[in-house]
Request: fold
Amino acid sequence: MSENRAELLAGAVVLAAAIGFMVWAGKGIGLGTTVGSYPLHASFRSVEGVVVGTDVRMAGVKVGTVTDVVLNPKTFFADTTISLRDDVILPDDSAILVSSEGLMGGSFIEIIPGGSLDNLAAGDEILDTQGAVSVISLMMKFAGGSSEEAPQ
Reply:
């Protein structure tokens, strides 16, 4: 009888650990209880590597996600909608840019807060944007060098 009890106890511990891990993993990818959020819009020349669900970060901390990316047929820019947590209030002169986690890392949206006393409201557009920088084109410029000689 004590063997059955030990097996039952071991099974319960394993099941509790599995459920705890699932809850922890779900919070890591944004599932579960979340605080309220509000939408903001931005238009980028290039959003290479950014898709719906991409993290929006400020100072390295996730503060939102990308909820929509569409091509504007008039400007040929990528119009994006991001959803920010309600507790993150941005000045209206904030900048938004597409950043990379390194040479081989993924892309994310970074917000650099401004210093204005006026804040962005839900549905406003962030005007100061910087699109993705192509690492390949940078490496090609560096490797190619310049064909002109420096004046002496």
Notes: The first helix runs from residue 2 to 28. The CA atoms of residues 71 and 78 lie 5 Å apart. Residues 37-141 form one domain. The longest strand covers residues 61-71.
